[in-house]
Specification:
heterodimer, A: about 325 residues, D-Maltodextrin-Binding Protein, domain 2, 2 domains, 11-stranded mixed sheet, 13 helices, about 40% helix, globular, B: mainly alpha, about 75% helix
Chain lengths: ~325, ~575
């Protein structure tokens, strides 16, 4: 028994040692990360290599980041919120959780790409598209949807997946796109039909439907084009990407400095770095569209000028999110 | 009355004589208050406040909107169904192992308990790959039962029965083992038929155990978060909705409300289990169970029991086999070329997570074990005011869904308070403390069970000979309950390594856990990497259990843990 206790003590001391050793190390930048871990590592490791600044990050969905930042408002644990649809950054900005910062860039950031008070900036973009399983299309002899109303086609009955508009920036962008195209009442009428006839299930994350389509669990999914390419087409799933001919909405990926974060100076350096040509070139691997005009666009990527876009109002979508979501949940009941 | 008062005064005097004991009782109360009560209280408070004002509108909304109360109904339905199927499964298995001469008992026992050590999501993932719309076995199953969907209530019940049936099995195995077979034999000798013995002797004696198992599985199913996340389809359950409300709607106060809604049924079940069912315990032995003399059984009993056991063992193998197979596939579900790439990718992305999980669990586990056994010792052997409260509070975390605890910990330790003047968010300590207080009930229960089996007169002899309480505890009690202590250790290590629902709220950049990485993979639909990492986790847990068993063998001189995987 004594020996067991001794062993336990040794282990405890050892672990304690590693704790304190870890905490005594040099200054570190803490980031809340909304990109997937694998992708985040690509950017963060490049940043660490170039600047010598150590980064520690936690990966969460943008909703989780917002909840976390809000809960920690009295004592913020991270300095930067990296990625996630700008809708949630706008929301955080309204709640007063973000600090203004105008990044130093070698190109002009258009008004679409930053908050008026610079509490967030946009550092990539992408359009909403449809992803469809090609085996399914062949079997049923139908074409991939090329308009919003194609989604109501009985061939896709109970065979469409997308995320909940209240958990995913992707799905919210889709919903806000439909409202901006139709107006709220008509959009909800359309959605009610869509929900009853076509939806198989809603997922938590915006990209969740892509592998579902790839695996044939559902026929059609709605997601961002860069995600459809990176997580569907390029992975080798039998899928095809299409866009609605009436026009579609698009996202701007947000980046912001958390108010009262522990390392504001390092955070600013990171934000500056995110807009450099080298950093923006890295987006090629995940088919995101860079905002730096000098950066290269991945082959096969769909740039925003190749798709018919609606005049999507991000600020309006971000500001009214609470009410619009409530209207959706009241009508759809999910 | 005078006797009782006399006893109380005696106890007070004892406490006075042993300030260390008094001090540790006070310390434990303080810790329980800070780390168990106050986080839950804060969640409750948050559900009743909007912008720092008292407000009942959250509750109004929850009871008037279909999208809030429907998940509540769904969760209850799921809990009841899973509890019933899980208990049935557990009972059949426990019966087979304690009452029939089924061959390969050890094999069946290990198979029946295996799902306990596996991380969340795994069973649900395997179910989709086997029975999803384009699953491996789907065409075959469709031929038999027609078109079906694994997503929804049916799939969830299947998956949770596999995941939580083993808990029922563990409970019922203990219960059936404790029922002296001599009673059944006596009834048989008096001429009762096998069916009559079962329905008039075995079953009535096992009823409290069955009710207990049912309620435990009900609690687990209600609080389950990982499986519904993957396979619930359009069947929305409360645990996931509470999580989505917070992470998706950024709505801490309504999310807290949903969490509180989830808390009520689980707490009710916990109360029933603890204060009603356990009072009706008809366990018939006082010492160690006597070895049953198993007689030959009629074929009509053996056949269904054996068939169920073989079927379930087959299902476990099928599901976990699918996970192993899947972890080597190039693109799970599409390109089945075998490759090691998933393991390499998994390791590159997740090596820090693996180290952190190991370090934090290794630190938390012995503390959990020691604290658990010590509290059990206080509850069973010492008499002091508030003993019942101590027992209740320390067991409480078991009934509180992880989501509630996680939110509570952020709310409680994100700022300094008069009670606890340290900020813990972002440190490793919040994770370690969460693990300790969440897993403690396991250690306590193991300790209580062991202490009940040891005659207090042995300890009294020690104190009569002049040893202090502390010395008696160290020299007499601890060695005797070592097996329980180690089984508590084993279990809490497993729980630490596979925890997710509460932990996801408190992980930070510096400290991260393996299950969070798996959730990330699942979220990203990188099923193969998720499977590879899950397997790695299972292997780590198995090795750790092996090491703990080795300790027991050396120290306990052949004593065995009542280990979950033997």
């Amino acid at each position: 028994m004594k020996r067991a206790m001794f062993f336990v003590m040794i282990v405890a001391v050892f672990v304690l040692g590693t704790f304190t050793a870890g905490q005594a190390a040099g200054k570190v930048l803490h980031i809340y990360e909304a990109f997937d871990t694998e992708e985040a590592k690509l950017y963060i490791e490049a940043f660490e290599k170039e600047t010598g600044i150590d980064v520690e990050f936690v990966r969460m969905s943008s909703g989780e980041v917002l909840a976390r930042v809000q809960a920690e408002a009295a004592n913020p644990q991270a300095s930067v919120w990296h990625a996630g649809s700008n809708t949630s950054h706008i929301n955080a900005s309204i709640k007063g959780l973000l600090a203004p910062y105008k990044p130093k860039t070698d190109f002009e950031l258009t008004d679409q790409l930053h908050a008026k008070d610079w509490t967030w900036t946009g550092f990539y973009s992408g359009a909403i598209g449809f992803v469809t399983n090609t085996k399914f299309l062949k079997e049923k002899g139908v074409n991939a949807p090329t308009s919003w109303d194609d989604l109501l086609n009985p061939a896709f009955s109970k065979n469409v997946a997308m995320a909940y508009p209240y958990t995913s920036g992707t799905a919210y962008t889709t919903y806000a796109t439909r409202i901006q195209m139709l107006d709220l009442d008509k959009a909800l009428d359309w959605w009610e039909k869509f929900d009853k006839q076509s939806i198989h299930q809603y997922t938590k994350s915006g990209t969740g439907c892509i592998p579902m389509v790839g695996l044939g669990e559902v026929a059609v999914g709605i997601s961002f084009s860069h995600d459809i390419l990176a997580k569907g087409v390029n992975k080798g799933y039998p899928v095809v990407m299409t866009f609605p001919k009436e026009g579609t909405g698009y996202e701007i990926g947000g980046l912001s400095l958390i108010k009262g974060g522990p390392e504001p100076e390092l955070g600013k350096k990171f934000i500056d770095w995110c807009f450099t040509e080298r950093a923006q070139n890295l987006f090629q691997k995940y088919n995101r569209l860079p905002v730096n005009p000098k950066a290269k666009v991945a082959e096969g990527s769909v740039t925003l000028d190749q798709v018919k876009l609606i005049k999507y109002d991000h600020l309006w979508a971000g500001k009214n999110k609470g009410e619009l979501i409530k209207a959706w949940r009241d009508r759809i009941g999910k | 009355m005078t006797g009782k008062r006399h006893e109380l005064i005696g106890n007070l005097r004892l406490l006075w004589k042993e300030p260390l004991l008094l001090l540790s009782i006070i310390a434990i109360f303080y810790f329980l208050f800070v780390f168990v009560i106050s986080p839950i209280f804060l969640v409750f408070k948050t559900s009743l406040t909007i912008d720092r004002q008292f407000d009942l509108s959250n509750y109004q909304a929850v009871f008037s909107k279909r999208y809030y109360y429907q998940p509540f109904i769904n969760s209850m339905l799921l809990g009841v169904l899973t509890a019933s199927t899980g208990t049935l499964l557990g009972f059949v298995f426990a019966y087979a192992i304690t009452r029939t001469p089924i061959p390969f008992k050890r094999f069946f026992r290990i198979t029946a308990t295996f799902p306990i050590i596996s991380p969340p999501f795994v069973v649900a993932l395997a179910a989709i790959l086997l029975f999803g719309r384009s699953g491996g076995l789907t065409p075959f199953v469709e031929k038999i039962i027609g078109e079906y969907s694994i997503y929804g209530l049916g799939g969830l019940v299947l998956v949770e029965t596999i995941a939580y049936g083993p808990i029922a099995f563990l409970v019922l195995h203990g219960v059936l083992q404790a029922i002296d077979p001599a009673l059944e034999e006596a009834a048989m000798d008096l001429g009762a038929s096998r069916a009559r013995v079962f329905s008039t002797v075995t079953l009535p004696l096992a009823i409290p155990g069955i009710a207990s198992a049912w309620l435990l599985v009900f609690i687990e199913s209600m609080a389950d978060f990982g499986n519904p996340m993957v396979i619930s389809g359009n069947f929305r359950v409360l645990s996931v909705q509470a999580f989505l409300q917070i992470t998706g709607m950024y709505d801490l106060s309504r999310g807290s409300t949903l969490a509180i809604l989830l808390l009520f049924p689980t707490l009710t079940a916990f109360f029933l289990q603890k204060y009603w069912v356990s009072r009706k315990s008809y366990v018939t032995v006082t010492g160690k169970p006597t070895s049953a003399t198993i007689k030959q059984l009629e074929w009509y009993i053996k056949l269904p029991v054996y068939a169920s056991c073989i079927l379930f063992a087959g299902v476990v193998f099928l599901f976990y086999g699918m996970v192993i197979y899947g972890s080597f596939q190039k693109l799970w579900g599409v390109d089945s070329t075998l490759t090691l790439r998933n393991y390499i990718e998994m390791y590159e992305v997740g090596k820090d997570y693996i180290f952190d999980s190991l370090a934090l669990s290794t630190l938390a586990t012995p503390i959990t074990g020691i604290l658990g056994v010590f509290i059990a010792f206080l509850i069973i052997r010492k008499k002091f005011a508030g003993r019942g409260v101590m027992e209740f509070v320390s067991m409480l975390t078991f009934a509180v869904p992880g989501t509630v605890v996680g939110i509570g910990y952020i709310l409680a330790f994100n700022q300094r308070s008069a009670l606890f003047p340290f900020i813990l968010t972002g440190t490793a300590w919040i994770i370690v403390l969460l693990l300790i207080f969440r897993n403690m009930p396991v250690g306590i229960r193991a300790g209580i069970a062991a202490l009940h089996q040891i005659d207090p007169s042995i300890e009294e002899a020690s104190t009569d000979l002049g040893a202090t309480s502390g010395r008696t505890f160290r020299k007499i009690t601890l060695p005797m309950i070592a097996p329980a202590f180690f089984s508590g250790l084993a279990f809490s290590f497993v729980k630490s390594m596979t925890a997710i629902s509460a932990i996801i709220f408190v992980v930070s950049g510096r400290w991260n856990l393996i299950t969070v990485a798996i959730l990330g993979f699942v979220d990203n639909s990188q099923y193969a990497q998720a499977a590879a990492m899950s397997l790695l986790l299972i292997i780590i847990v198995l090795i750790a259990l092996g090491i703990i068993q080795m300790f027991v063998n050396r120290i306990g001189k052949g004593a065995r843990t009542t280990s979950i995987v033997e």
